[in-house]
Amino acid sequence: MQAEHQVIFATAVFLITYVIIVSEKIHRAVAAFCGAAAVIIAGIVNAEQAVHFVDFNTIGLLVGMMIIVGITRQTGVFEYLAIKAAKQAKGEPIRIMAALGLITAVLSALLDNVTTVLLIVPVTFAIARQLQVNVIPFLIVEILASNIGGTATLIGDPPNIMIGSATKLGFMDFVLNLTPVVIVVYVITIFILKLVYRQQISTRPELMQSIMAMDENAEIKDHALLKKCVMVLTLTIIGFALHQFVHLESSVIALSGAALLLLVTRMDPEHAFHAVEWPVIFFFVGLFVVVGALEEVGVIEAIAEYALDVTGGQLLPAGLLILWLAAIASAFVDNIPFVATMIPLIQDMGRLGGIQDLNFLWWSLSLGACLGGNGTIIGASANVVVIGMAEKRGSHIGFMGFFKVAFPLMLLSIVISTIYLIAWYLLHATAMLATLALGILIAFILGKLDKGSIASENETITAKK
User: Fold this and answer.
1) What is the DSSP letter of 383?
2) Distance between CA atoms of 254 and 365, rounded to whole angstroms?
């Protein structure tokens, strides 16, 4: 196949795969795998190149965390936390909504947002039935909180896992650079949602008392297993925080944690591996190959050159363009394939534009893709999971009903992120200028001292003569 035909074919396969993923007519894992098969059969990439394009660090991190969380789920600790939060809120629906939102955000940062909503949603339905209130506001809060909380860390949201794996940015890099703005976005979002839903979720005092009568301790099914899980999860998170210093990939930390937990719990591996969402894993594998084919034929590089022309090669305009593009795109299409496409694009922008430090662009992509997923009900994997769970329990979250609440809040979060990124850029630019000025000053002083020393030596020699 000629080079020109390869470009057309690879682009067509990518677009068709993307459309099928968005339409959800066929399971996205099947769509991605069929796309990967098409580009390999057509000779765009061979089998060896296809394997090379698969990011096994992302795959390993996902598998390791899925095993750890799957085993921990059996202890009942997540149900315990939800009921405990409801009781701390004194059974008041609006306070319970905020408490469940906080638990969802924190767990999404420490585990991952899809797993978190799988754990929290069933308990939310139980609490809503007990209070006899509409469960939809609770679910919307949890969707938004899961995507906001997941933005804060390397392991919180699949886009961040992919970015971290491609760039070697570590767990603490994400925490230090993204958590400040995530906290601001979360607080403002919850405050507005409490105002929106205050009149919609009220209940009778006797029903509030029924929440206080619930026994959260009864939810803990295995105390010995819980201790082992907490120990391993703590060690794993510490490992994430230190993995850059010990020169280990994040996937190695996650898989080591999973291996340790399997060892100390003596759990049947076949049963534990059921916790791994294999369709998600194979979706990633297929997607990496489809995007790799675009990279192989030069499409990604051509788009990068165009983006550099539009932004004039300037870092700040490029970052803000990526932020808003990622946010709007991720609201209407799944953010995972979008980020998979953007990663090589940004890398090519750095290479072609001679940009050494791309961190500003990575933070822009992360904030845009993760927070943009809150824009619509199909914007992120966690959103789709909650919809499915709600429909199985007889509750329907409509596209427009969610859109009217969530999309304005998403835009507000991107405005806040824009302000934060501009401040981040100016602060780092100022720090770089200050460092440069200090370096020049030190060099000047050392130069003066050297000249003074030489002059002194000359005077000494003259005096001896």
Assistant:
1) H
2) 24
* Residue type present at position 311: T
Cβ atoms of 219 and 28 closer than 8 Å: no
CA–CA dist 371, 335 (Å, integer): 10
> How far, CA to CA in Å, does 96 sit from each of 108, 123, 135, 247?
18, 12, 12, 42
Owner of token pair 């080079």: 3
How far is 46 from 296, CA to CA, in rounded Å? 11
pLDDT recorded at residue 232: 93
DSSP helix, strand, coil percent of the chain (3-state; round to 5): 80, 0, 20
Tens digit of each residue's pLDDT (9 = 90 or more) over 246-287: 888 888 998 999 999 999 998 888 888 888 888 888 888 898
**Cα–Cα distance, 295 to 301 (Å, whole number):** 7
Please write the tens of the pLDDT for every residue from 358-414: 899 999 999 999 999 899 887 887 887 888 788 888 888 888 888 999 999 999 999
Contact of 386 with 139, CB cutoff 8 Å: yes
pTM of the shown model = 0.78
How far apart CA 455 and CA 463 sit, in angstroms, is 12
Q: What is the DSSP letter of 372?
A: H
9 contact partners, CB below 8 Å, separation of at least 6 = 1, 39, 42, 44
Select from 200, 142, 140, 198 the least CA-distant residue to 405: 140
Residue whose C-alpha is closest to residue 110's, from 141, 78, 82? 78
The number of helix segments (H) and strand segments (E) in the chain equals: 21, 0
Compute the C-alpha angle 248/68/183, nearest 5°.
Answer: 75
Type of residue numbered 413: S
Nearest to 98 by CA among 88, 112, 111: 88
Alpha helices in 213-298 (DSSP H): 223-242, 250-265, 269-272, 278-297
Which amino acid makes up residue 391?
A: E
pLDDT in tens, 29-81: 898 899 999 999 999 999 899 998 888 887 888 888 889 888 988 898 888 88
- Which residue bears the tokens 């003074």? 452
